[in-house]
Amino acid sequence: MTKKINDFENHDEVVAHRKSIFGKYEAFVPEFVYGGIDGAVTTFAVVAAAAGAELGAGVVLILGISNMLADGLSMSIGSFLSTKSEVEQYDRIEEEEYAETEKFPEAETQEIRAIYAAKGFSGHTLENIVSHIVSNKKLWVNEMMLGEHGLIREEKHPSANALMTFTSFCILGFIPISPYVYAFVRGIDLPNAFIIACFSTAVAFVIIGYLKGLVNQTNKIRAVVETLFLGGIAAGVAYGVGDWLEKLIGA
Fold first, then answer.
1. Tens digit of pLDDT for each residue in 195-228?
2. Is the dihedral of CA 44, 40, 3, 82 positive or negative?
3. What number of CA atoms fall less than 13 Å from residue 38's CA on the CB side?
4. Domain-by-domain residue ranges, the chain?
């Protein structure tokens, strides 16, 4: 994936920072978080709507599982196409930069000089930096990609990105319907299935919210509360609509 970077001085600092929390798996954490949020919210909304409409456990399973798989697949396809597009964009711009350093070396050198002058370097220090960068074509182009276009390449294959999105969507999306699956497998009646689903989904929202705070480097408590709040609104609306439709149709 290609990202805009505005708050770091160089590519190495960006990479070191991004790997400091989750190690080699850090690159996939955003996909896991946002895929998981979508999976938990949408599947729980289906469960809440079914509960509001007083539908049977079998209907909840059919609606929940079909929604989980269909929406998860749709989201993963979107992730694949988006990542592929960003990779292709980066490759295109990178190819252009390589061509420009060959055709217009003086102009490209001046751009490097301007980039580092804007960072506060001057005199011999500035010239030494510029000389070092332009002596290495790959480093030169990387600096142009970051300094001129604000882009760095993240080494994530579109297929791996899509797989992570689908996996997280299904894992977190399964939580709201898990009590109904348990009751079905055991062949028992579970009258508190919806309450259990509410509690387990709330726990999932807490975990996802905390991870979201880590990914975005924002206040963890606020991220948890925000995720719980928005998920609760979605569930409340779904439950209310289901209850209203059940009364309307049943009347």
1. 898 888 888 888 888 888 877 778 888 988 988 8
2. negative
3. 22
4. 2-84+157-243
